[in-house]
Amino acid sequence: MDSTELITALSCSSDENISLLFEAGAQPEEGFLAFKEHHENQLHSLYIHPQLTEFQNYGPWLLEIDNAERLPDYLASLQGCAAVIVSTRYPSMLAVQLSRGCTMVQPDGSTALTRFYASHVMETLAQCADCDWHAFLFNGITQWWLPCETQWQALAIKPSEVDKPTNHIIRLDKATWQQITDQP
Q1: Structural contact between residues 113 and 103, judged by C-beta atoms closer than 8 angstroms
Q2: N or C: which end of the chain has fewer CB within 10 A?
Q3: Rounded percentage of the chain residues whose pLDDT exceeds 70
């Protein structure tokens, strides 16, 4: 996949951090465990909820990219890359923030474990600027890049319309839930 446009756009300021969001389950387990050991100070699981910690070796992780020049190597060698994120938040704090997206409350009130970072889901969530949780989920994120068929594409995130958000729990109405579940 061509990452030229992505790499060109990553001219970050000194107060921004680059993170690579990937699914550990896309790696052979032995390979991921070796990668995890080698990069332990740069990795942050999004499965931090006590009921999810046993599944960390299969779920989403953030890898801190301390040198943007190394990003193409990670993109080429790491399976399951789901996003490249530029944020003013420290990666460990960004992982906590994004962990809230792993579970969503469905219209019927039940909670679902989701792959919120999947392209078709993120494209929908990024447009829900009138929801409280939008301000929490996208706080400090200046760029979000998604893998597409031939190249990486920047996600358009609408600015939050909620002045004083109070609830970080992602509760979806029927129409939004239908949008994200109708896709592959």
Answers
A1: yes
A2: C
A3: 97
